[in-house]
Amino acid sequence: MTSRPARRNRRNAEAGPAPDEAAERSGPGPGRSGSGGGLPRSLGLTVASTLVWGVAHLCTGRRTLGAALVALFAALVVGLGAWYLVYRPDLLHLAVRPDVLSAVAGGILLVGLVWLCVIIRSYQITRPGEMSAPARAAGGVVVALLCFAVAVPVSWAAHTTYVARSTLTSIFHAGGTNGAKQIDTSDPWNGQSRVNVLLLGSDSAYDREGTRTDSMTVASVDTKTGETVLVGMPRNLEHFQMPPGPARDRFPDGFTGDGPETPGLLNEVFQYAEDHPDMVPGVAKNHRGPTLLKQTIEGILHQRIDYYIMVDMFGFADIVDAMGGVKIKITQPIPYGLQGGVLQPGDRVLHGKEALWYGRSRTDSDDYTRMGRQKCLLRAIARQADPTTVLTKFDKLADATKRAISTDIPQELLPALVKLSEKVKDGAQISTLAFVPPLISTGNPDFALIRRLAAKAMGSDATPSPSGSPSGSPSASSAGSPSGSASPSGSGSPSGEPSSDGGPSASPSGDGGSGGGSGSSGHDSGHDKAKPISLDAICPS
């Protein structure tokens, strides 16, 4: 008598293999065909499976695997669509999180690999068993083209995501490392009504030792509305007090520089700190300069400086080139360079070198006119850096940005910072206030006036820093500029010409005018410039 398992095995043998197993056994091989219809049908099913996974498997009787592939493909499509609809408002915020970018890059590569396997296997199970050499070649070419059509966009997406992550992690460090603050992501602004960021333009030319911060602007941004005030600090400000500690001990009567060849200007503080580690004990190289400069400007303004961003001027030119240039309206000729070049008036597209000179040229001009042009240039770049430009020039922009920018903004703050920048770009008012003659005498500054104006423009989030003007330092009134300083007509306006009301001209040329002005007119102009002025009035579109 046969046992029950033996009888069951005999019945299974008589019934034959399961459909999916039979399909696998009857796959392509010598003398067999994967399916009827020849090569055209095989290629058609392979194309169909490229568009919707599993079609070829279902048509060749492999129902289990085919259904699983179709279900997986549908789940991916539906899931991606749902994720986009739910997180669409937060896509930019997610795009500045390195952990999210790592997961996205890995997911893209995994999906791409599965996709390629589906294409190749679909052709294998549907191709005729016997084909001529030309037919085999034609089939191989079509499959290769299908794989290429999938691999290129998948590779590009994964590469772009990886580059974005690499750029973020090379510029922005995690909180608590490399001088970056620890951030509570549930309250990124720590209850502050404004965030103050020091924007530095550094000039480290090949023929100059060290780095000079010739452009210094404090961007004070309302964390709720995005309204922004750009407070311009003149590079040649003198007689300012250093922050308490080793710096104040070395310069008790105000900063005097490093030897007779350095007059003690504000743009010297950065390099002085880098050259003298004892000025900021415990701070690493390349962080000493921005640390001391932030503390010094905090003392000058009596306003908290939360973070800094420094852009190397020559790297900035690379960024502009990567963008394809920046559109600027110039109203007067701007001489530049050593070869007698001139930026002519009109609506111009400035490329890297030209944009650099637009922001740096002082020929027939002055520091204060240059400060105005720099703000107009920043405004133009911010407006023109749209998503299309960023995506189409992404690799070049990322490479230039990594080489040009340094900051102490922590990675964890980036999502909140992106939200804030969207408010700024969506129409929040941007105004400017420059502490330049005739409002402020850079050689003999009225620090009390500077602090009153800063407090009014930037709100009441003042720092309790005691570092003020040095004892005994005379305070200049706003009635005039010191001897030898640039004429009041060029102060802070990119045009270099005063408007009829004494405020900044609405037609920035980028070149300083030569017209002077009487003491009384300079006094009136100084009072006009005591209030922040909209960049829209200074920089024509």
UniProtKB/TrEMBL annotation:
Q: Which residues cross the membrane?
A: 65-85, 100-123, 135-158
Q: Gly residues: which segments have biased composition?
A: 28-38, 510-520
Alphabetically list the UniProt keywords: Membrane, Transmembrane, Transmembrane helix
Query: Low complexity bias located where?
Result: 459-509
- InterPro entries given in the database record: LytR/CpsA/Psr_CW_biosynth (IPR050922), LytR_CpsA_psr (IPR004474)
Region Disordered: list its residue ranges: 1-38, 459-541
Cell envelope-related transcriptional attenuator domain segment(s): 212-385
**Does Membrane show up as a keyword for this record?**
yes
Q: Which residues form a coiled coil?
A: none
Give the family this protein belongs to, as stated in its UniProt record.
Answer: Belongs to the LytR/CpsA/Psr (LCP) family.
Cite the record's Basic residues compositional bias ranges.
Answer: 1-10
Designated name of the protein: LCP family protein
**Keyword Electron transport attributed:** no
| Any Pfam family matching the protein | LytR_cpsA_psr
